[in-house]
Prior knowledge:
Layout: H1 7-28, H2 30-39, E1 43-47, H3 50-67, E2 70-74, H4 76-82, E3 91-95, H5 102-114, E4 119-124, E5 137-140, H6 153-172, H7 178-192, H8 195-213, E6 218-223, H9 227-241, E7 246-250, H10 251-254, E8 266-272, H11 278-288, E9 295-299, E10 308-310, H12 321-338, H13 351-355
Parallel strand pairs: 1-2, 1-3, 3-4, 4-5, 6-7, 6-8, 8-9, 9-10
Helix pairs in contact: 1-6, 1-7, 2-6, 3-6, 3-9, 4-5, 8-12, 9-12
Amino acid sequence: xxxxxxxxxxxxxxxxxxxxxxxxxxxxxxxxxxxxxxxxxxxxxxxxxxxxxxxxxxxxxxxxxxxxxxxxxxxxxxxxxxxxxxxxxxxxxxxxxxxxxxxxxxxxxxxxxxxxxxxxxxxxxxxxxxxxxxxxxxxxxxxxxxxxxxxxxxxxxxxxxxxxxxxxxxxxxxxxxxxxxxxxxxxxxxxxxxxxxxxxxxxxxxxxxxxxxxxxxxxxxxxxxxxxxxxxxxxxxxxxxxxxxxxxxxxxxxxxxxxxxxxxxxxxxxxxxxxxxxxxxxxxxxxxxxxxxxxxxxxxxxxxxxxxxxxxxxxxxxxxxxxxxxxxxxxxxxxxxxxxxxxxxxxxxxxxxxxxxxx
Length: 359
């Protein structure tokens, strides 16, 4: 009997897909590593929008840390209409899971035709899509086609693929020894195998707090460093599915104005990764717990009080987005379901046809 695919179908596939990506990464990145080795590319511009942009924000700091590369990020519309390529940029990467983002394709096309000495790379799950026509190197994200419009497995696959490209670049630039590479891969393997546990913990959390989660009219998600990308993807997922005002903030940015809208109906998720900055996030959470009952902690560390999901595992802060984002994928699906929103029913069906944001 045919079972209709949902977001949860793809969320549950993430462990096997990410393991497959990890097992094939050397083969998948062979041309990329060779070019980095030949050209010594150390200054990248990454073009992306939507969830692809959030994936870049989630992986940027790992790539920079492991390889010593400097990364700039830009939205394609801005690059096409308002920017030219900085003279120090030596590689441009365009990220589009579907390969159909019209603006990302046009941005890479601009580089291809106007900057002939710049290496261009497309990162996509459809290696036959139009974006690849303007690429010196094509990287297959390896997640296949996602038929549900609210991407989940494609996001984690993109994050992992980009992080593994960081390892390949580090090898090409002689920044990573064979033993260090093995250690990194082993850590990724351990994280991927924890994905079902994260789903289980999130399901428990939702069932415990669903009565309040299903009625909160406004959400903010606060992260910092690598987890800022998770906060932005949570914003995207909640906006797409729960369909209430939601915004992802960087920790300090939230304190410069946005905090003033907090009231007793306001929901705040605080994303903690294990470092000194978690103390500041904890202080902020403690402060607003006096003003709203809807403060939630999503943490890699052990926690035994308050409303929280604790991954309760030792995770490199720079790799943590790979697991932390799963919490918000599950919550966005369950909360939308709890509010009676039928995600299989399309809305704004003529949007792409009129706005032409996808080809």
